[in-house]
Amino acid sequence: RGRSRRRVIPLYEKFDPGCSLNVEHLLFWCGHKFFEGEWSGVKLVVGLGNPGLRYRDTRHNVGFWALDQLAEDLGASSARFFKNALIHDARLAGEKIILAKPQSFMNRSGYPVRDILAYFKISPGDLIVIHDDMDIEVGRLRIRDGGGHGGHRGVASIVELIGDRDFCRLKIGIGRPPEGFEPSDYVLSTFKGKSREIMRDVISVSSLAFTSIITEGLETAMNKYNSYGK
Q1: Predicted model pTM
Q2: 60 labelled catalytic
Q3: Catalytic entry in 60, 88, 131, 152
């Protein structure tokens, strides 16, 4: 009684008493040297999907699948949670790459994307979004620079929240729903039989397509991969 309570000093204050970082920032930066020096030239690559086992294997999650494949192919860092997204970092052809899977559910994908762009001062021109597309046949890819959201609610959320639609999209075809199948139910269904095998191949090719965008330029990548699967 009468003794003052000992204040527990937050970990980040032990390193720097004047530090304004919050705990989320600390968890990201602690032991992390990837972004030492200038941040110019950073690309943000976002794979769209829904978090959780319930949605893991659905058509709407092919953006997550593609991002996981890309992280593996680039030898990216282990995933960490930051700005309501699971992110990795990697390098490709001298570029610094942030790979992100928003954990906010598809219709609110724009919030994590907006926050990550703002935090790292990345322009929309350095954003690449990988997502499913019902207007493209299963087994096909389409790279597009800018444009509308095409009815995709994840892309629509990003356009709305960042206030810009001039970013690159890498679209992965999931095909149109059968007659009588509601689109909202279709995107949450899984691939069956041959289409499942086809998707394994196209996910691998999507990683090559991304690499081409970075190393060869957007126009060359479009010419090479927009005809894939024809």
Answers
A1: 0.83
A2: yes
A3: 60
